[in-house]
Each structure stands twice: as structure tokens, then as C-alpha cells.
Amino acid sequence: MRQALDGIKNQKLLAIILVVSFAVRIVSWMVVPHPDLSTNASLAYLGGADKLVNGKGFADPEYPVFTPPIYAVVIAGFLLTLGIDQVPVVILQIVLDTCTVFLLYRIAQEIFGWKAGILASAMWGLYPFAIYATLYIGTETLFAFFLSAFILSAIRAMQSQKWAAFAWTGVLLGLATLTRGATQFLPLLFPLLWFIGRPAAKRWLLDCAVLIAGFSLVILPWGIRNMVVLDDFIPVARAGGVFLWGSSEKLWTIDERVHELPRLYSRMAERGLAAPPSGSSFKEKDKYLFRIAMQNHQDMLAGDPVGFSIFMLKKLSRVWFATESGANHRIVLGTNAPLYCLAIIGAGVAWTLRVRWSLLPLLVICYFVILHSLTFPLFRYTLPIIPLVMMFGAVGLVYLLDHAAGPLRGRLGQAEP
How far apart are CA 45 and CA 63, in angstroms? Predict the structure, then answer.
């Protein structure tokens, strides 16, 4: 009877959290000044959507492939049906981010129980950076939704051991990857998850194969398009520019980049790495940027190995707070520092108690941190995994309340006259 009452209470709490989350995002949209469009928003998302609606579509070799296509397709759909782009996208993002609040509750509940689920969903529902991300043209909200749906589906698949569930999990991962290419290597982690459930090795390999098949079927048409139109093997996207921005401290912010890039191109030309001629294809330009990035890393490693190690450690730390403008670092870090501390405690608790299925979100967090530390460390790139960080933060908070608050109350009680 008590379990049934607790279930009703939890459902009411979750319903309140969802309503408040949605309302806060709507109010923010109405009162917060509209954010400026980023380069990606102008060229890849709105520009890509315009090419789909008014141009040659995906048959155009100039269609931007430094980001995957799903977000532009969504915008193009609104252009075709409603004749407008940004307003319906923001509304969709507000709805999807509210859905992410629910998905986070379900993930945390499945792994750690209802307390962690309620706390984690409430934190994401009121998280200022999540709210702000719904208001601008960018993939963070849509990607976080697909990533959360993928993780919940993966847990369900591992619980049920049904091939259809693994196939659907692969489809969700494919959709996430066609929203943002960061997850294209994530299937490589799944063999490691054998340690969670310890199923029969042969069966687990087949499950992984089914997941990868579902994933591949989703991204394959885009890869084929790139082979046909661009005559290049690009499974998801090219990101030589992003890799270059992360290859030198002088390129980490937009203002520094404006001054440093011409000097860098000039130095590389003197060493025989000349820029592609005017009118070159995007593929040639991107490969040029990638070669410069590799040369920067090689020069640093050969000239100062200790300095290179420090450089990589700086990138590892910047993942958690850095902005491309170079501003608001203290605000981001100050807002998130308590969360990060709680998440470390929660991850330690999960690891110590060997909580089943907790290895999956831990691996996803580590994957993203390593990937963006090796390429370009921005907090905006890390934002889609912050729901998982919040889940471990909720676990840490529950642990402290359950195991530290009790003894503290006891000591205070003994001190009373």
C-alpha cells in the first residue's frame, strides 16, 4: 500500500517538475533577448535549410558538411509547412527539452531509484544553461534529447535482451549522430558494457552487432550521399576547422582566432603547406585545416613534450567551463562547481557499490570528455551530457543527505542543553 502511495506521490512530483520546466522555458523565451546567430546557425542550419527548400538540396556539392543534416532538415520542414524557421524551432526545442527532463527521470530511476530521478529531473528542469540552449538556433537541445533517449533505450535493451530493442537503440544513436557527429564512435564502447550484465559472450556480440546495424542503417544514406556528391568518404561530417581551433591556445577564442589565423596560414605556407586555391571545394579546404592542426600538435609535442602535456590538461579542464567568446568562464564554472563536486561523489558511490547499468552513463561522459579534449574543448559541446552529470550529482546529494545529515543531526542533538 505504501509503495502505491509513494508511486502516486512521485508521479505528482514529476508532473509538477515537467509543468514548471515547460513554463520556465516559455517565459524565458518571452522575456530573454533573442541570442545572436552563430556561424553554424547561419551557414549550416539556416543556410542548409534554405538550400534544401530553395536550392539544389543535398545534390548541391556546396551544401555544408561540417555539421550533420538532421537539424537543417527540421528547419527546412518548418519552412515548407509554415513558411517560417526560427520560431517553430524554438517551440520544438522547448517541448523536446521538457521531454529530456522526463527521460532523465526515467534513466535515473532505472539505475538509482526515484529519489535520484526526481532530483536530477528537477535540476535539469531549472538549469539555466539548458533553458538558454532552447532559445537559440543550435543542436544542443535536440542532441541532448536523442542522447538521453538512446541511453534509456540501451538500458531497456540490456534488461530485456531483445534484438528489436537493440536495433531501436542503434536507430536512436544514429539519429543523435546525424544531429551532431560527436557520437559516431560511441558504438565502439558497447563491447565494454559486457562487464555490466555479464551475458554470454556470443550473445552479447550478436546484440552489439544488431545495435551497430541499426545505427549504420540510419547514417548510411548520408554517407552514400557524400560519396556520390562529394566523391569523398564522409560518414557523418568533416570538422577540420574545429580540430584546428583546438590545436593552439591562440585559437581558443573568436577574437584571438581573427588575429592569429592569417599569421598561422603564412607560417604554414613558408613550410610548404599552402592554402588551397580560391574556388577549391569544401573537402580540400577542410583537409588543409586538418593538416595544419596535425602539424601544430606535432610541433608542440616535438619541441616541448612537458608543455604539450600541460596543454592537453588545460583542454581537459576547459571542457567544463570554456566559451568560444572567452567570456563568462567564471559564471559557468561557478554555477556548475557544486554540481561537479556532487557528481564526483555520486560516481564514486556508484562505482563502489557496483550499481548495475551505471557504467553506461559513466562511459558516455568519459567518451565525450576525451573526444572534446582531443579536438576543441567548449562547455557548449559538453552541455548534452550534463543531464548525466546531474544524475550522478543527484546520487551524491542523496548519499550525503542519507549518510551525512543523520550523524550531523545526532551530534547537534547531543550538544543541546
Answer: 10
How many whole angstroms separate alpha carbon 229 and alpha carbon 63?
10
- Neighbouring residues of 350: CB distance < 8 A, sequence distance ≥ 6: 111, 112, 358, 362, 392, 395
DSSP characters over 299-359: HHHHH-HHHHHHHHHHHHHHTTT--TTS--HHHHHHHHHHHHHHHHHHHHHHHHHT-TTTH
Q: What is the largest CA-CA distance in the chain?
A: 84
Q: Tell me the pLDDT tens digit for each residue of 143-168.
A: 999 999 999 999 999 888 899 999 99
CA 191, CA 16: separation in Å to the nearest integer? 39
The grid coordinates listed for 320 are: 567544463
141 class by beta-carbon count within 10 Å (0-12 exposed, 13-18 middle, 19+ buried) = buried
Torsion 213-214-217-218 (CA) sign:
negative
Q: How confident is the model at residue 340 (pLDDT cuts 50, 70, 90)?
A: very high
Q: Residue 101 pLDDT more than 60?
A: yes
Q: How many angstroms separate the first and last alpha carbons of the chain?
A: 41
